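Anyone able to model this chain together with adenosine-5'-diphosphate?
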Amino acid sequence: MIKFQHVSKTFRSKTQTIEALKDVNLTVNKGDIFGVIGFSGAGKSTLIRTVNLLESPSSGEVIVDGKNLAKLSKRKIREEQKKIGMIFQHFHLLNSKTVFENVALPLTLSKGNKRQIENRVIETLEFVGLSDKVHSYPDQLSGGQKQRVGIARALVTNPSVLLCDEATSALDPQTTVSILNLLKKINEQYKITILIITHEMEVIKEICNRVAVMENGRVIETGNVFDIITKPQKETTSNFVKSIVRDDVPVSVYKMLESNKYDGRIFNFKFLGDSSGKPIISQLAKRFNIEVNILFGNITELQQASFGNLIIELIGRQEEIERGIHYAIQEKVEVKEVEESGNRNRYYSERAMGNVVHG
Ligand code: ADP
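re: yes, here you go
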C-alpha cells in the first residue's frame, strides 16, 4: 500500500520557483494497478519519484507498506528501495552489459550468492519471455525486448511495488499491448502493487483498476476506472476520455440533422454496466408505438463490462416517445435529447423533458 499524505514539492532555482506537487493525497491499495494520468508538466514524474525517494517531498509524507522512507537511515532506505522496482520510458539499460548482467545488477550490488543470483536472473528472464536473449546486448534488442529487460531488472529483487514511469510511451501500439499484458501478469501472479504514470488514456483503460487525474501539481479527480471513464467530472478528464471513447455526436450525423431530413426526435442513449446487456432498443419498438432509427453507435469494452453510446431517432406521437424514454431511463439508460442547434459545441439539449431527462 502507498499513501501520499499532503505531499507537496517545490523546485527552487535562482530565477524561479516551481510548485510541482501541491497537497497531493492519494491511497494506492495493495494489489491495485493504479494509474496517474495528466498532460506533460502536471507533476506525474515528480509524484512517482517520491515513492522510492528519487525525489523527496518538500512537505507531507509518502508511506510505502507502512514506512515513511524519508525518516529512515541511509542503509534502511537502500533496503526499502530494493522492495520497490521501477521501469522507465527509455529503459535505462547499460549498453556495455549483456541482458543477463543488466538484470543481475541489483543482486550483484547487494553481493548475494553467485549460484542463487544466476538462478534468479534466469527465472526472471524466463518470466518476461527473454530466455533466448540472455547473452545479447541491449543494442541487439527491439524496444519491446528492452522494456522486458527493464521489467526483469525491476522484478529480480522480488519487490512488493512496481513503479512504471511512462513505460510504454516509446513503444508502438502492438508492443504496448504486449508490455501491458506482461504488467497484468506480474500483478496477478506475484500480487505486486503497480503504480503507473502515463499521458495515454488507453493504458489506463487497458490495465488499471483505479486512476487519478493530475493537473498543475494537483490531483483533480480520482476513482474507479469504469466510473471515471463513464462519468468524468472535470474537463481535463473528459478530454482524456474522449481520446478512447466517442461519446459525442459525429459530424456526419450532425450534418444529416441540419439537412432537416428527420421527422422524429433525436436522442443520445448511453448504456453503462447494468443496462448494456439488455435488449432495450428492441423493447422500445415493441412496447411503444414508436419507430426507432439508429443513426450512430459504438460500444467500448471496459473493465469486463461494456459501455455503449447510441444516437437514435424516435418517430411517433409525443406521448408515446415520452413513455418510451421513461422506460429507457427506468432501465438505467442515460438519455439526452440532441438538438439541431446552430452551435456545434452544444449538441445536447439541457432542456428537461418534464421529469424524464437526467443529466
Ligand atoms: P510530468 O511528469 O507530469 O510531465 P513533472 O513531474 O516532470 O511532470 O514536472 C512537473 C513540473 O516540475 C514541471 O513544471 C517541471 O518543469 C518541474 N520540474 C520537474 N523536475 C524538476 C527539477 N528537477 N527541477 C526543476 N523543476 C522541475
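Residues 173-190 form the longest helix (18 residues).
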